[in-house]
TrEMBL record:
Source lineage: Bacteria, Bacillati, Actinomycetota, Actinomycetes, Bifidobacteriales
Protein name: Multifunctional fusion protein
Family: Belongs to the sugar phosphate cyclases superfamily. Dehydroquinate synthase family. Belongs to the shikimate kinase family.
Cofactor note: Binds 1 divalent metal cation per subunit. Can use either Co(2+) or Zn(2+).
Organism, scientific name: Bifidobacterium bifidum ATCC 29521 = JCM 1255 = DSM 20456
Keyword Kinase: yes
Length: 540
């Protein structure tokens, strides 16, 4: 398999592609290459001399060949000359590179700073004559092409090369899951350090007012979101809600609606949710219901919210009768899963998120289970204070990306949970009953872990899977520090709540079980004795 650059940098003359590119390469312990230097080695003379002797068309042909070779044989940070992306052959090569997972970075410097640097650098054939006028004309031609060709856009206005390099590094190491489907507006889930920096970009220019909905424990992250929003020119209404499930009530939602009305929020304004799954659920519900729907962005701050609640477009609140019984399917404009927010996450809250991660492995992506097995001890020992920059960071980023891809697969085909999307509820029929009976003192991911064991026991009793797979559920989940049993209620209490489950049809129970890893099936109206026996087997 050919070696590919980690990033390819494009931009105007004087934008700092070489200087910033070298800083990025040094930060990432990677080699750096400049296309112009490589071309000079190839032709055996300086570029201005080659231009003078052979003309621009001949130069562009050599340039295209050199870039094509580097895109298939260089594993570092690669900077292109200002005119290279204007050549159709180079555009085609960059498009193929992006499709293969590459990052083409448009380095967007302040035009005045870039012009000044371009003049100082000298030796630029494209700036002969009135350099300022020539630069501006080229900028008008090239800027829209750069923007279209690149899949990463980094503004460096007023930043030092090192600061710009750190910003670029965060963005090129970011993972992106594109969520699409026939019945939804496309959106991206961005995963990485600094993902929250995309807030203004995702919200766009239309909103004037932003309702920033968050909980008190994530104040440091909501402070950062507020700063980014104000820098983007938005008016911010700060709305603090109770933590966890206590924030997901009609009373809390009504208080927010009153605030939005009093403060003149219109249909073109927007909502940003910062916090765990409960906060993003409520933020989405408010966005879905205010004036029949306004734009919203989720900034999840827990592992569970990153892999589950903030993506997929399920919004809702709880009622005294059950969890998420009132809600709406309403997709966000984007989800910004900023790994920096995990530094404040307590160990037990991180671990509960692994319940949803494992569930996604069981129903769709066995590689998730292999990663969990291989890194179980490190994951169980998660410490936010040492997380960033550790070997565990890339493991967690991959688990988040893979889990979100599983969710995106089901959501894209079935936004409103008419069939395929129900498979995401593996383990949830019992889990929601546990949460209700425990008055939501049990966290969702922990309840899901027990629910997955229950579903495995039920599937085994009815001949869908063997005992080894049931045992694997227990051993894997247990190795991660997740619970695999529960005895906080009677079967009759659980049964009554399972009949209220959203998958139930009339008086008939409906479960999701496996018939093998990665292959869930619907189980309609199973025998009552099997439902009860499976429950007995998960009691401590």
């Amino acid at each position: 398999m050919p070696t590919r650059p980690v990033a390819v940098i494009i931009g105007m003359m004087g934008a700092g592609k070489t200087r910033v590119g070298k800083e990025v390469a040094q930060l990432m312990s990677l080699p750096f290459a400049d296309a112009d230097v490589e071309i000079e080695h190839e032709v055996g003379m300086r570029i201005p001399e080659y231009f003078e002797r052979h003309g621009e068309p001949a130069f562009r042909e050599v340039e295209s060949e050199v870039i094509a070779g580097m895109l298939h044989g260089f594993g570092g940070v690669f900077a292109l000359g200002g005119g290279a992306p204007m050549t159709p052959a180079v555009q085609d090569d960059l498009k193929e590179y992006i499709e293969d997972g590459g990052k083409v970075v448009y380095l967007m410097a302040d035009p005045r700073e870039a012009m000044e640097r371009a003049h100082r650098g000298g030796g630029r054939p494209m700036l002969q004559g009135d350099a300022d006028a020539r630069w501006k004309k080229l900028y008008r031609q090239r800027d829209p092409v750069y923007y279209r060709v690149a899949n990463v856009h980094v503004e460096t206005y007023g930043q030092t090369p090192l600061a710009a390099a750190r910003k670029m590094m965060d963005m090129i190491t970011e993972r992106t899951v594109h969520v699409t489907g026939a019945t939804i507006e496309d959106y991206d889930v961005s995963i990485g350090e600094g993902a929250m920096n995309h807030l203004s970009e995702v919200l766009g220019p239309k909103p004037v007012r932003i309702a920033l909905i968050h909980t008190q424990p994530v104040q440091r992250h909501s402070d950062r979101a507020r700063t980014l929003l104000r820098q983007g020119g938005y008016q911010v209404s700060d709305i603090v809600i109770p933590d966890a499930e206590a924030g997901k009530t009609i009373e809390v939602a009504n208080g927010i609606w009153q605030r939005l009305g009093d403060e003149g929020f219109t249909r073109s304004d927007a909502v940003v949710g910062v916090g765990g799954g409960a906060a993003t659920d409520l933020a989405g519900f408010v966005a879905a219901t205010w004036m029949r729907g306004v734009r919203y962005v989720n900034c999840p701050t827990s592992l569970l919210a990153m892999v589950d609640a903030s993506t997929g477009g399920k919004t809702g609140i709880n009622t005294p009768q059950g969890k998420n019984l009132v809600g709406s399917f309403y997709t966000p404009a984007g989800v910004l899963a900023d790994l920096k927010t995990l530094v404040s996450l307590p160990n037990d809250i991180f671990i509960e998120g692994l319940g949803e991660v494992a569930k996604s492995g069981f129903i769709k992506d066995p590689e998730i289970l292999h990663i969990l097995e291989e890194h179980a001890a490190e994951l169980r020992a998660f410490d936010g204070a040492t997380f960033l920059g550790s070997g565990l960071e890339n493991v967690v980023a991959e688990l988040i990306e893979r889990t979100v891809r599983v969710k995106a697969y089901h959501v894209s085909a079935d936004l409103k949970e008419a069939g395929l999307r129900e498979f995401l509820n593996y383990g949830h029929t019992l889990a929601h009953a546990i949460e209700k009976l425990e008055h939501f003192r049990w966290r969702h991911g922990n309840a899901v872990a027990v629910g997955c064991v229950y579903a495995a026991e039920l599937g085994h009793l009815l001949g869908y899977i063997d005992q080894d797979l049931v045992d694997y559920h227990r051993s894997l989940l247990g190795s991660l520090g997740l619970p695999t049993s529960w005895n906080g209620g009677t079967f009759d209490e659980v049964l009554a709540l399972m009949h209220r489950d959203k998958k139930a049809r009339g008086n008939k129970l409906r479960f999701v079980v496996l018939d093998s890893i990665g292959h869930p099936v619907h189980l309609d109206d199973p025998p009552a004795d099997a439902v009860e026996e499976a429950f007995r087997r998960i009691q401590a």
